[in-house]
Design a protein that fits this description.
With 448 residues, the chain is α+β, with helices and mostly antiparallel strands. It contains 10 helices and 23 strands. Strands 7, 14, 15, 16, 17, 18, 19, 20 and 23 form a 9-stranded mixed sheet that branches.
C-alpha cells in the first residue's frame, strides 16, 4: 500500500502568481484579491469505533473592485484562466452599480508584518488516513477496556491565505492545526476535554483519554444541589468558551454607541464614550493578542491585510484597547487594530489538582455548553454545565453533582477571578483554568 504524502493545496508562490494576474486584468480604480485554500481531514468515532472519515478541500478566490466609494466582490472556486477572468469582470460590473458606501475605506498601502514564519508542521500536513485511524483506534481500545463509551473527533488541517491589492500590498502564509476532542460516557456519568496544537505530536491524546475515562467513572450517580451562587473552578476548555464571548464584545463602536458592557453612560442614560482605563476586572486578568505565542504561532496578517501583532488587551484587570475597524478608528482618531485574535491569558504554574487542593468549597465546571445571550448590553449569558460537574469540599473532589443552568454576567466573572491554573491551547485561544468567587446558577438541567 502506498500512502500519498504530496502537498494537496496550491503553494504560496502559485497563490501570489494568481493574485498578480488578477490585478493586471483589473480595470477598476482599485482591486483587492484574496485566496484562501485548505484541506481538513477528520475522523469521527462513536461508542468505541470509527464512524466517519472525511476529507474536505477548499479553495476560494475573491476579487473586490471599487470605483470611488462603490465596491463589490465576486468569488470563484476555480482557478483556470476563464473562471478568473469571469470573476474579475463580474466584480467590476457589480461595483459600477453598487450604492455608494458612506463607510468605505481606501485600499491599504503595503504593510509591515512581523518577520516570522507561522506554525507549519509537514508531518501534520501530510498525515495519512491510515495513521489517523491507528491513533483513533488506540483511543477506542482504551475506552472499551475501561468499560466506557468513547466518542469524539481527531482532525488535521493545512491552510493557506494570500492577499494582494493594486497599491502593491502582498502577503501569503501557510499554517497547520491538529485538534482532538474526546467524550467518555458510562451510565449517567460523562466527561469531556478538547485540545488544539500546531502538530499532531503536540496533542496530549493519551493523557486526555486517560483523564476523561477516570473522570467519567467518577461522575456516575450525581447528587442534586440547590441552584444558587457558588464559587467555581472552570476548566481551561470551559473558561475558553466563556472568555470568547467577552473578547467578541470588546468592540469600540458598540461601546461608544452605548450598546456594550464597555459603554460609559451618563446620568441621563446617554453614551459618553467607553470604559478603557477603568479597573473593571481582577488584577489577575492579563489578556493579550499574541499571535507569536509558542502554542499558536498564527498568521502575521489578517484577511483584510492589517498586521496581526502583539497587543495588550487587559492589563492587571484594566482594559487597554478595544477593537477598532478602519472606519471607526479613523472616525475616532485611533489606528485600526485588526480583530482581537488569537487570545492569550497569562496563568500560573499550578495545575488543576493544585487549584482544587487550595479550595475550601466550590463547583468544578468541566464544560460550558450551549451558551447564549440573555442581555447583550450587560453581557449576561446563559448556558449549562455538562460532562462532569463536581462538588469540591476541603481541597478535594467530594462527589459528582447534577448539571445546572447558569445565568452569569461575564464581566462580573472576570472581576471575581481569584486564582489561575496553567494555560493551554483550545482552538485559537490559550487560557488557564480559573477559580471564580461567585457564579450564578438558576436551575437544574437534565443534561449529562
Amino acid at each position: 500500500m502506498t500512502i500519498a504524502t504530496a502537498q494537496t493545496i496550491i503553494s504560496e508562490e502559485e497563490a501570489l502568481s494568481i493574485i498578480e494576474s488578477v490585478i493586471k486584468q483589473s480595470a477598476a480604480e482599485g482591486v483587492f484579491v484574496s485566496i484562501s485554500a485548505g484541506e481538513e481531514n477528520i475522523s469521527r468515532f462513536s461508542e468505541n469505533q470509527i464512524s466517519q472519515n472525511v476529507s474536505k478541500k477548499q479553495l476560494r478566490l475573491t476579487v473586490t473592485s471599487n470605483f470611488g466609494n462603490r465596491q463589490a466582490s465576486a468569488s470563484t472556486t476555480e482557478i483556470n484562466a476563464e473562471a478568473i477572468a469571469e470573476t474579475v469582470r463580474r466584480s467590476e460590473e457589480l461595483a459600477r452599480i453598487a450604492p455608494e458606501d458612506p463607510e468605505w475605506m481606501p485600499l491599504l498601502e503595503p504593510q509591515n508584518y512581523e518577520q516570522r514564519k507561522p506554525g507549519f508542521d509537514a508531518a501534520t500536513a501530510t498525515l495519512s488516513p491510515l495513521v489517523r485511524g491507528e491513533i483513533v483506534k488506540k483511543v477506542c481500545d482504551r475506552s472499551a477496556k475501561a468499560g466506557v463509551k468513547g466518542c469524539g473527533t481527531f482532525s488535521t488541517e493545512i491552510s493557506l491565505q494570500a492577499i494582494g491589492n493594486s497599491l502593491g500590498l502582498r502577503a501569503s502564509e501557510r499554517t497547520t492545526k491538529a485538534d482532538f476532542s474526546f467524550t467518555a460516557r458510562l451510565e449517567d456519568g460523562s466527561s469531556w476535554d478538547h485540545r488544539t496544537a500546531i502538530s499532531t505530536e503536540e496533542l496530549p491524546i493519551e493523557e486526555i483519554t486517560e483523564q476523561q475515562i477516570e473522570k467519567a467513572l467518577a461522575s456516575r450517580h450525581p447528587r442534586e444541589i440547590s441552584p444558587g451562587t457558588y464559587p467555581v473552578i472552570l476548566s481551561g476548555a470551559a473558561f475558553a468558551e466563556l472568555l470568547s464571548w467577552v473578547v467578541w464584545n470588546l468592540d469600540a463602536r458598540a461601546a461608544d454607541e452605548g450598546r456594550s458592557f464597555m459603554s460609559r453612560i451618563d446620568a441621563t442614560g446617554s453614551p459618553v464614550g467607553n470604559r478603557l482605563g477603568e479597573q473593571m476586572f481582577s488584577p489577575l486578568v492579563q489578556l493579550q493578542r499574541y499571535p507569536a505565542h509558542p502554542l499558536l504561532q498564527s498568521s502575521t496578517f489578517f484577511s483584510d491585510g492589517l498586521s496581526n501583532y502583539y497587543l495588550e488587551i487587559i492589563k492587571n484587570g484594566i482594559p487597554q484597547t478595544l477593537y477598532y475597524s478602519r472606519y471607526w478608528g479613523k472616525n475616532k482618531g485611533f489606528a485600526p487594530t485588526g480583530i482581537l485574535s488569537p487570545i492569550v491569558m497569562i496563568g500560573s504554574d499550578k495545575n488543576l489538582s493544585q487549584l482544587i487542593a487550595e479550595t475550601e468549597r466550590a463547583i468544578l465546571i468541566s464544560r460550558a455548553w450551549y451558551v447564549r445571550y440573555v442581555n447583550p448590553r450587560t453581557l449576561e449569558v446563559t448556558g449549562m454545565t455538562r460532562d462532569g460537574t463536581f462538588w469540591i469540599e476541603d481541597g478535594a473532589i467530594a462527589f459528582p453533582i447534577k448539571n445546572l443552568r447558569f445565568n452569569q454576567v461575564l464581566p462580573d466573572m472576570l472581576r471575581d477571578i481569584d486564582a489561575l491554573g496553567t494555560p493551554q491551547r483550545f482552538g485559537n485561544n490559550v487560557v488557564p483554568e480559573v477559580r471564580v468567587r461567585a457564579f450564578n446558577f438558576t436551575s437544574l438541567t437534565d443534561s449529562i
